[in-house]
């Protein structure tokens, strides 16, 4: 199975000068936490990141780290995903939206923290 991280957006939901996927969390960009988690799960034969002309900084950082990228047209999430579905021609894969994955991770950590506070 292939892991596919969607990382080709403009990052317009958050008002930061850098792409939201490159925001640092625990000394490395969010997207690397997501990709490392997918690789560490040992569930995927390959992990790709989908990028576009909307995310040149993200693409550069990924490639500097040796992570393979797939170029999309940068026409929005649904259009880019459909483009990749056609390009991958029947391959089985799981799609991960980088910022949502990160928020889920933070929610889980917060819930664990609350439980630990109740114990102590």
Could you explain how this protein is built, in words?
The strands form two sheets. Strands 5-4-1-6 form a four-stranded parallel sheet, sandwiched between helices. Strand 4 (about 45-50), helix 2 (about 55-65) and strand 5 form a beta-alpha-beta unit. Helix 1 crosses helix 4. It starts with a strand and ends with a helix. It is about 45% helix and about 20% strand. With about 120 residues, it is α/β, with parallel strands linked by helices.
Number of helices, where a helix is a run of at least 4 consecutive DSSP H or I residues: 4
Helix coverage percent: 40-55%
DSSP, total strands: 6
Write the CATH fold name: Spore Coat Polysaccharide Biosynthesis Protein SpsA, Chain A
Rough outline: globular
Strand share of the residues? 15-25%
Order of helices and strands: EEEHEHEHEH
Residue-averaged pLDDT = 76
Whole-number count of domains: 1
Lateral arrangement of strands in the main beta sheet: 5-4-1-6
């Amino acid at each position: 199975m292939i892991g596919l991280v969607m990382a080709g957006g403009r990052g317009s939901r958050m008002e930061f000068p850098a792409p939201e996927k490159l925001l640092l969390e625990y000394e490395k960009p969010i997207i690397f936490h997501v990709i490392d988690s997918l690789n560490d799960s040992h569930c995927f034969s390959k992990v790709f990141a989908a990028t576009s002309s909307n995310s040149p900084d993200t693409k550069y950082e990924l490639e500097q780290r040796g992570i393979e990228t797939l170029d999309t047209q940068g026409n929005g999430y649904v259009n880019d995903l459909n483009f990749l579905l056609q390009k991958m021609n029947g391959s089985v894969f799981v799609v991960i939206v980088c910022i949502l994955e990160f928020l889920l991770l933070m929610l889980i950590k917060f819930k664990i923290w609350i439980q630990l506070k109740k114990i102590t």
